[in-house]
Design brief:
Number of strands: 11
Distance between the termini: 51 Å
Strand order of the largest sheet: 2-1-3-10-4-11
Strand content: 15-25%
Radius of gyration: 27 Å
Order of helices and strands: HHEHEHEHEEHEHEHEHEEHHEH
Shape: globular
């Protein structure tokens, strides 16, 4: 690349000399100042064209030769510090420390519930060195924003883990059990406002409402931007109950500010001493899963290579530590089973939004 650009710069100088000499001959009767302006303008135009061509050539050549092991771009379709970003930062560190891959960069592409990142991924057709994380929230975002690009337009690699919401109330709440809360909610849905950290949490609330015999569209939901705001809404009694990621609220539960009632999971969660909503008699199982996606147009061999890299990442003790800290439950899924799962989840979310009146 460097030699090519250096050669082009030399050719650029020669082209400018030829063009400016011609310009000077044709403009000899103009004042010197105007001749200089014309020459500089011509030089600028040629420079822009050549540099743009050089950059384009470099991008194409890099894209053709790279794969995920020697040049990895990990896309988090959200800002730094969120759940999607955490997955890619952990993966980057493990790939580097365990020499699974090299030249690894994490790129944040936030906006529109992840769909801007999805559109960016879709535009990188054939790139075998790019992978993006997504999940339940991205499926929801595609539906809510009516995104032109969907998960059907990119290459699914693998589902890697799930994390679960916890149902909480303020520490001084009169609701001691899930049954207490459900009974009061059903008697007067608007008298028990819920809060949560985003669209996924509202979907879990909607599933709980259905299980409790309440029409989701009759509920009150106050969206917040994260666990801190959720906890604040509860302790100030702006909201009576909440669904949010367990990792976001565990400190508040352990400190006694909030009371955990149950986990929204199919099975008991290791390290969490709370029953599931299923165990409490309510069929609420919507999980916040994470999956990996590559651009369209890559080969089966390229997809397998990306899958193998992340499988290696997940076999390390560092990944096991991240699972323990963040309460991630490993649920690896790939191939036709993953395609079927994505279609089923898409339909579940569509139905919940419809019942919410959205």
């Amino acid at each position: 690349m460097t030699d090519w650009v250096r050669l082009t710069s030399h050719q650029l100088d020669q082209e400018v000399m030829d063009v400016t000499e011609s310009a000077e001959q044709n403009e000899a009767d103009r004042p010197p100042g105007k001749r200089n302006v014309i020459a500089l303008a011509i030089y600028g135009v040629i420079a822009v064209v050549v540099i743009a061509t050089a950059v384009g050539f470099s991008f194409q050549r890099g894209g053709l030769s790279a794969d995920i092991r020697n040049k990895a771009t990990l896309i988090a379709p959200a800002g730094a510090g969120g759940g999607w970003d955490l997955v890619m930062r952990e993966s980057q560190a493990i790939m580097r420390d365990h020499k699974i891959a090299t030249n690894i960069q994490v790129v944040n592409v936030p906006g529109a519930a992840g769909t801007i990142g999805l559109s960016r991924l879709h535009s990188m057709a054939g790139r075998a060195d790019v992978v993006m994380v997504g999940g339940t929230g991205l499926l929801a975002g595609v539906q809510q924003t009516k995104s032109a690009v969907t998960l059907n337009d990119v290459t699914p690699i693998a589902r890697i883990f799930e994390e679960y919401d916890v149902l909480v109330v303020p520490a001084d709440s009169p609701y001691k059990t899930v049954a207490d809360l459900a009974a009061a909610w059903k008697a007067n849905p608007h008298s028990v406002p819920f809060t949560g950290g985003g669209s996924f949490d509202q979907l879990v609330m909607a599933q709980f409402a259905k299980a409790a015999g309440i029409a989701p569209k009759d509920t009150t939901y106050i969206p917040k931007s994260g666990g801190g705001e959720v906890a604040q809404a509860l302790v100030t009694h702006t909201a009576a109950a909440a669904f949010s990621g367990y990792a976001d609220l565990v400190d508040q539960i352990e400190s006694g500010r909030l009371r955990g009632l149950a986990m929204a999971a199919k099975n008991p969660v290791a390290g969490v001493e709370l029953p599931t909503l299923v165990q409490s008699g309510f069929e609420v199982t919507l999980a916040n899963w994470r999956a990996l996606f590559a651009p369209p147009g890559i080969t089966d061999a390229d997809a397998k290579n990306i899958r193998d890299v992340f499988y290696e990442v997940m076999q390390t003790s560092d990944w096991a530590d991240a699972e323990k800290i963040n309460k991630w439950t490993r649920v690896w899924l790939e191939g036709d089973e993953l395609t079927t799962f994505l279609a089923q989840e898409d339909e579940t979310i569509r139905q919940l939004y419809e019942e919410l009146g959205k």
